Amino acid sequence: MEVFKQHCQIAEEYHEVKKEIALLEERKKELIARLEQAEKESMDAAQLTKEYAELTEENRTLKLAQMQCAEQLEKLRIQYQKRQGSS
User: Fold this and answer.
1) What is the pLDDT of residues 14-73, one digit of tens each?
2) Buried b / exposed e across 42-62, counting CB within 10 Å, b at 16+?
3) In the chain, which ranges are continuous DSSP H helix?
4) CA distance 85 to 64
5) Which uninterrupted H or E stretch holds 1?
6) 64, 65, 66, 72: CA torsion to nearest 10
7) C-alpha closest to that of 82 among 74, 31, 4, 26
8) What is the largest CA-CA distance in the chain?
9) Sign of the C-alpha dihedral, residues 2, 3, 7, 8?
10) Claim: this prediction has a pTM higher than 0.85
11) Residue 12: half-sphere exposure toward Cβ, Cα within 13 Å
12) Spatial separation of the C-alpha atoms in residues 52 and 7, rounded to whole Å
């Protein structure tokens, strides 16, 4: 009879441990999913930062080109006006 009681107690403990393992495995899956999401967001942030730097540089280059074109246009206008005045 004592062996039966021990067997029942061990079976109950085994069932509790098995339940706890299942809960811990579920928690592990949740944490892995959260970690993967955080890594993805971190990569997205890094990509956006890189893209921002590239666009900022492109914007600076385009502004410089626009300024040079405006200066060239002004020089051409002056030359044109001089030609019109001397004709």
Assistant:
1) 999 999 999 999 999 999 999 999 999 998 999 999 999 999 999 999 999 999 999 999
2) eeeeeeeeeeeeeeeeeeeee
3) 2-86
4) 32
5) none
6) 110
7) 74
8) 127
9) negative
10) no
11) 6
12) 67
**Could you tell me the two tokens for 54?**
């590239």
Amino acid at 50: K
Per the listing, tokens 């730097």 go with 53
Tokens of 34: 């959260």
The amino acid at residue 72 is Q
